[in-house]
């Protein structure tokens, strides 16, 4: 079955057809659970990494693999042009992280976007973007993903343009387990649409950071989604008085200042936030859905948790049991984590409908 719109909301929305826009992305939903195969994985590599955190966890030995990267995209930057804090000789190119600022004119962010409420998630609206590939010559992940008919292109496009199934599992868990966000520092890691972070935002989190591999995803999907879910939409539309409007705008800007947006590969993202001039406090909660499909990334991912999670914090991770084609999956990842002996993992829920899926929690030992 082929959907033709910017988001493929798999399984849950399989029967929801959306009108076509010219130039809209077509994604084959039948490939949802089997991510792109080895044909794109020609830069698979692994290295020992990186700078370890300056705390008690230093004593734990790190054996991670580095993330593969592939330079087919002009937005990639040579790694050796960035900070030399970390050895990266085996990666001539790596997707350097950057922070995306929220544009002042929020209306512009939503220009040409169609906002739709997700069925069953009335409190979260989702922006559907019309992505014309010629608008994004630098990061032509849309056309590449389309022409290769795959959901992921390792090191080029990591799947953030669509909403993956486990996101809904984690959202349901938040409600069921009454997960508290108030006052928490939250990271939506590998955010794609950013729904997990958005729920944390709406739930009163103190600060919410969104990270995706692709800057296009942040600019065209995550950021518009967050703006659409800020109170600007709820409050702003029916008001005409300039003073009231101005006041609401500044309220919204203040609210949005709790959110920060980052793109780039995980180790680069860690470097960016840890070395940033802005004060960085570790996260109380790291939310992450469908990010353990590729075993080559486990080292970097584990390292990211290790470096960015507060010692009393927890990771809530949602994943399919197995990712056919790429080889990752929950058991492999849990084994990897166990061997590093830094985190404890606990299975929160097993969803045995369709493809088996897991929700796990990770806390420091
Ligand atoms: C399959 S998508 C899942 C998106 C979203 N969490 C969801 O459930 O809909 C995987 C996400 O992980 C991120 N990701 C995967 N590998 C990464 C890496 N090595 N460095 C940075 N981000 C990565 C990508 O940005 C991508 O959005």
SSE layout and pairing:
Layout: E1 2-4, E2 26-28, E3 77-78, E4 93-94, E5 98-100, H1 106-109, E6 113-117, E7 125-129, H2 141-147, H3 165-176, E8 185-189, H4 195-202, E9 207-212, H5 215-228, H6 231-236, H7 242-256, E10 259-263, H8 266-275, E11 283-289, H9 298-308, E12 309-320, H10 330-340, E13 343-351, E14 357-364
Parallel strand pairs: 8-9, 8-11, 9-10, 11-12
Antiparallel strand pairs: 1-2, 3-4, 5-10, 6-7, 12-14, 13-14
Helix pairs in contact: 8-9
The structure holds S-adenosylmethionine.
The fraction of residues assigned to DSSP E strands is 15-25%
Instruction: Name the bound molecules.
Output: S-adenosylmethionine
Helix content: 25-40%
Order of helices and strands: EEEEEHEEHHEHEHHHEHEHEHEE
pLDDT below 50 for ≥5 consecutive residues: which ranges? 1-92
- Strand order of the biggest β-sheet: 5-10-9-8-11-12-14-13
Largest sheet: 8 strands, mixed
Structural classification: alpha/beta
CATH superfamily: Vaccinia Virus protein VP39
CATH class equals Alpha Beta
Cα gyration radius (Å)? 20 Å
Keywords: Acetylation, Cytoplasm, Methylation, Methyltransferase, Nucleus, Phosphoprotein, S-adenosyl-L-methionine, Transferase
Protein name: Histidine protein methyltransferase 1 homolog
Organism: Canis lupus familiaris
Subcellular location: Cytoplasm, Cytosol; Nucleus, Nucleolus
